[in-house]
Amino acid sequence: IQMTQSPxxxxxxxxxxxTLTCRASQGIGNDLGWYQQRPGKAPKLxxxxxxxxxxxxxxxxxxxxxxxxxxxxxxxxxxxxxxTYYCLQDVAYPLTFGQGTRLEx
Amino acid sequence: EVQLVESGGDLxxxxxxxxxxxxxxxxxxxxxxxxxxxxxxxxGLEWVGRTRNKANSYNTEYGASVIGRFTISRDxxxxxxxxxxxxxxxxDTAVYYCARATFGSGTxxxxxxxxGTLVTVSS
Lengths: 105, 123
Fold this sequence. Notes:
heterodimer, A: four-stranded antiparallel β-sheet
């Protein structure tokens, strides 16, 4: 299953509302997670099962969608939200990541 | 506190072998599936493979680029997982992360990650 993220790069300002998109080449139900990676750091889980917020993740992050199209929305961008965001499907092996969206504040 | 610590990364020649370790603490290791994920320099994340738990016979799954060359094993008594890498290629150069897979809301997700260990394949 191929995962395609858009845009590849996004520049936005503090306080903006931003939406990242991930599309699957075939239906994956709700088996999708979103991960944030800051430069030089390990990835961090933000959202699982499409829309469930991981414990400790700020509520400005939200996920939506189903089947082949998914979104990650940051309601009010904060300076610490810079980094690269990846989606990951976990419905079928091999698991596959999207190519990432780099978010610049 | 959940902790995952990878080790074993090194410089190795093409065609060589290497074993990475991931040592876990702070949770019931034997209950969890565990994954390896890698990231080549300046590139995105690539899923390498997964080992299931004892209840699921420690069965494993692998990414297409490593099938037949990499093997994942685990030792629950030592709360450790291993990645045995053979026939290494220059394109295997990457930071290798171990991650804990947790089941919830009908799916698995990688909710804890190690800091990564660097493998460099070069002559």
